[in-house]
Amino acid sequence: TAWVEGADGYGVGESLTLTFNGPQALHGLRIAGGYRKNQATYGENAKVTAYRLEFSDGTSMDVTMGSYPEDGHLGKSPIGVNGWETVLSTDGRDWNSIRPGLDFISFGREITTDYVKLTILEVAPGTVYEDTCITEISAY
Known about the structure:
Layout: E1 3-4, E2 15-33, H1 39-44, E3 47-55, E4 60-64, E5 81-84, E6 103-124, E7 133-139
Antiparallel strand pairs: 1-7, 2-6, 2-7, 3-4, 3-6, 5-6
């Protein structure tokens, strides 16, 4: 499954919020952009290429993700992103035709926050649908 913004068009300006049960000391996020069910859904749907991140301490930052790999297997280390993770355990999802590399977004410092709000600033369009998807997000 994936989160899909649900707005008309590509959802620029739409957001999702990760809410925690109290303040958390975070250093970054890992995000699997796009709909990574399989190779087809990955290409057919849009992927976020730039986010605005907002935190409960009042700070915010804009992050550019760089280019998503067309085949899902390789990626450049985009500006503001530490690199690509190349292996996740398979848990019933079809990761054979597309590797689920997560983008590592480093905040550059520790941020103590009750939430992280991610707002879509820019997307890479899909080949079929005007849906922008995110398969996984984890905070670290």
